[in-house]
Design a protein that fits this description.
alpha+beta; 4-stranded mixed beta sheet; OB fold (Dihydrolipoamide Acetyltransferase, E2P); 5 helices; 5-stranded mixed barrel; elongated
Length: 211
C-alpha cells in the first residue's frame, strides 16, 4: 500500500514521468529458496525458476547487511505461494520480475524497509526511487550505516585487481565512523573526520580503492 501511496503522491505532484516496467506474463508458484536479498527460486509445477527481483539490488552475501537482507526477503516470501509478474530476463537467463506474496510487492517492500537499493542503472521506477528516499531519510535497515557500500560498488571492488599501497608504506586507514578501510592510494586515506591507522584486516574494504 505504501508503494501505491508513493506512486499517487508523485502523480499528484507531477513528478512521475517514468513508467514501471511492462509485465509480459504472470505465473504462480511456491517460493522454495532465497539466494540473497534480491534472488529467489520459485517452484512452478515441477520446474524451479530463478527469479531476480526487478528494479532492486541487495547487499551481496558476505557484504555488510547481506545476511539481514536475505532474512528480510525470506520473511516476506519463503514457503509462500507467490505471483511473479515477469518483465523479462537478465543476461544470466534469470527471470526478471516483481514478486507478490500475501498481497505484498516484495520488491517495493525490500526497498521500503531499507534492505535493498533502487537499482537505478537498470530501473527508472519512480515509486522505488521514492521509497528509497524515505528509507534513507528514516535511516531504516542498511541506511543506519552512514556510508553503506552499494552492492554494484562492492562487486566491482571484488573484481578489481588488488592495489598495493603507494610507496610500499603498507599503511591502512580505518574510518571509525563507518568501519570502512582505505589504503594509502585512496583519496580518503587519513582524510575522514574520525579515523586511525589500522591493519589490513580491520573493518571492511573501501568500494573504490579496495582497502
Amino acid at each position: 500500500m505504501r508503494y501505491l501511496a508513493a506512486i499517487t503522491t508523485l502523480l499528484l505532484a507531477g513528478l512521475l514521468t517514468a513508467a514501471q516496467p511492462k509485465v509480459v506474463s504472470e505465473f504462480t508458484g511456491r517460493v522454495v529458496g532465497v539466494t540473497d536479498g534480491d534472488t529467489v527460486k520459485v517452484l512452478v509445477g515441477t520446474q524451479s525458476v530463478t527469479v531476480r527481483l526487478e528494479g532492486i539490488d541487495a547487499p551481496e552475501t558476505g557484504q555488510a547487511f547481506g545476511t539481514r537482507s536475505k532474512q528480510a526477503l525470506s520473511a516476506l516470501v519463503f514457503g509462500k505461494t507467490a505471483t511473479v509478474q515477469k518483465t523479462g530476463e537478465d543476461r544470466f537467463g534469470r527471470t526478471l520480475g516483481a514478486i507478490i506474496a500475501d498481497g505484498v510487492n516484495a520488491n517495493a517492500k525490500m526497498v521500503e524497509g531499507g534492505w535493498a537499493w533502487h537499482y537505478k542503472k537498470y530501473s527508472t521506477d519512480a515509486g522505488l526511487a521514492a521509497l528509497e528516499r524515505q528509507a534513507k531519510d528514516a535511516k531504516r535497515g542498511l541506511w543506519a550505516d552512514p556510508n553503506p557500500i552499494a552492492p554494484w560498488d562492492y562487486r566491482a571492488s571484488r573484481r578489481a585487481p588488488k592495489v598495493e599501497p603507494a610507496s610500499g608504506t603498507g599503511e591502512y586507514w580505518l574510518n571509525t565512523s563507518s568501519g570502512v578501510r582505505h589504503n594509502s592510494t585512496c583519496e580518503n586515506f587519513k582524510k575522514t573526520k574520525r579515523g586511525r591507522l589500522s591493519s589490513k584486516t580491520e573493518g571492511r574494504p573501501c568500494g573504490i580503492c579496495g582497502g
